Amino acid sequence: MADGQDNQQVAFLRGINVGRAKRVAMADLRKLLGDLGFTQVRTVLNSGNVVFGAGTVAPAEAAARIEEALVLKLGVAARVTVLSASQFDELIAQNTLAPPADASRLLALVLNNPADVQRLAPLLQQPWQPEALALGQWAAYAWCPEGVLASRLVAALGVLLGDGVTSRNWATMQKLHVLLGGADGAATA
Q1: Domains observed in the chain
Q2: What is the SS3 string spanning 86-145?
Q3: Cα 91–42–31 angle (5° rounding)?
Q4: Do residues 28 and 74 make contact, with C-beta atoms less than 8 angstroms apart?
Q5: How many angstroms from the chain centroid is the CA of residue 1?
Q6: Is residue 87 a contact partner of residue 11, using CB atoms and an 8 Å limit?
Q7: Is the pLDDT of residue 18 over 70?
Q8: Which helix or strand (DSSP H or E) is residue 49 part of?
């Protein structure tokens, strides 16, 4: 897919709307990005997934602008990771784990700093069965057949990366991919 559609990007806000903390209405989030000059702003689900047109703004700059505006306008501090549409396409393509029967048990852990993938490489040598780990340029992929909350692998990734990563299940990633035009089907916007 080309980045030609007004430089499409996807933003992941870490830790919003989880429990009672950091509550952000998606209508407010869409307005916030619109006020920042981003176009075609669409949200997916209620967990801080935003697809938008960024014009000439680079993903890192978009992330910084969104983080600052969240604090100043909504009073919410949240880490924001932004990928271009082509980076997101690569993230989808680099998942080498078999397509799951239950997409909610396969996580894409999107890296805030792609260089952090090097810190995760030693985890590939550990026995995680029945869980599985794969690494890509933009994300780590974790198969958690017994559930995310019971996952030793996800816990290990969290210890190594802290707030330098935000996770989404594969079903959400597929919805975002559809919204970006990378697959057939419909997304909840």
Answers
A1: 8-85 (3.30.70.1280), 89-178 (3.30.70.1260)
A2: HHHHHHHHCCCCCCCCCHHHEEEEEECCHHHHHHHHHHHHCCCCCCEEEECCCEEEEECC
A3: 130
A4: yes
A5: 18
A6: no
A7: no
A8: strand 49-53
> In Å, what is the CA distance from 19 to each residue of 46, 81, 83, 124, 151?
12, 21, 26, 32, 20
Q: How far apart are the C-alpha atoms of 86 and 22, rounded to whole Å?
A: 29
| Gap between the Cα atoms of 30 and 41, Å rounded | 6
Say if CB 112 and CB 79 are below 8 A apart: yes
What residue has token string 């869980």?
131
**pLDDT value of residue 45:** 83
Q: What percent of the chain has pLDDT over 70?
A: 90
Q: Which strands sit side by side in the sheet containing 8-13, from one edge to the other?
A: 39-43, 49-53, 8-13, 80-84
Chain segment 53-69, per-residue pLDDT in tens: 999 999 999 999 999 99
Task: Please state which of the ranges 25-29, 61-65, 121-125, 173-177 shows the lowest mean pLDDT.
Answer: 25-29
pLDDT tens string 80-138: 999 999 999 999 999 999 777 788 899 999 999 999 999 999 999 999 999 999 999 99
